[in-house]
Amino acid sequence: MNQNSQETTIMNLSVQGGSAATAVGNPEKLRNLMRTVGMLPVLLLLILGFSLLSQNFFTLQNLSIVTQQASVNIVLAAGMTFVILTAGIDLSVGAILAASAVVAMLASMSPQYGMLGIAAGLGFGLLLGLVNGVLIAFMRLPPFIVTLGALTAMRGLARLLADDKTVFNPELPFAFIGNDSILGVPWLVIIALLVVALAWFILRRTVIGVQIYAVGGNAEAARLSGIKVWKVLLFVYAVSGLLAGLGAVMTASRLSAANGLQLGQSYELDAIAAVILGGTSFTGGVGSIVGTLIGALIIAVLTNGLVLLGVSDIWQYIIKGIVIIGAVALDRYRQSGART
């Protein structure tokens, strides 16, 4: 198969999978637009509602807090978007974040080379993501089972590396990432927006991006067209691991500490909820990073607003669980609507 025909086939596959990367007429463009910004009214309604219920919500200080709280989830959800677009799942991102944060903190203890903690956290996250990718791409094990097992194993690894204690560094050389800003914009927010921009570029403007949509739309057809499906799967789980490592550096820089027991707990659920709320389909092939950004902001606004209203942690978990179930139900509804 020559290069031109292969590229044509890939583009056709991505359209069949519902990719927002290509458009096949106004109805398809409209459908993609609704998937991308369909939850924006919900975000605006939440902001309006919490502003009316709490005078402390719509303030510059609190909005800054909301965006900083959202930043780590945005980064994790960006990686999760890559994975779910291929009809996969990564339940281990919270545990990878914890393990990578511990490694970053341990590496930062060196008086002269403390900044290497950043590279250590990123590299360890990438390594753990590649482990998931190898098991899924080469051994063809189900992503749910692999990452569920990895969640437990990597959580244990994080506790082992930290000797089941909190690793604390009061002189953390990269603490500025979690606590400082540039022209009033927090570093955490800048990093999250850069990740979103880079993810958008990869998914919308590169060959690997088109291939990700194609594999999610129909993996077997993608393989027959000449796409190396294993490379795509390895890539998306590596990206997920790398961004979990970045989230680890961001979290550790804010706390100047890390532990394997509590850090990153249930972060994977927030990331998945953000992706699905943002319009990415669990069955793969459909979705956008802009939608994921909106979904992550919904989660952050909801969490912050409930805290300001004095809602207990117990009810916060219940409400967020309902949101996740509702997101999946919404995804099913959107799929059934697309078929009619």
TrEMBL record:
CDD domains: TM_PBP1_transp_AraH_like. Its main location: membrane. It comes from the Bacteria. This is Branched-chain amino acid transport system / permease component family protein. It is found in: Cell membrane. The chain crosses the membrane at residues 33-53, 74-107, 113-137, 182-203, 232-252, 272-302. It is a multi-pass membrane protein. GO terms for molecular function: transmembrane transporter activity. GO terms for cellular component: plasma membrane. Keywords: Cell membrane, Membrane, Transmembrane, Transmembrane helix.
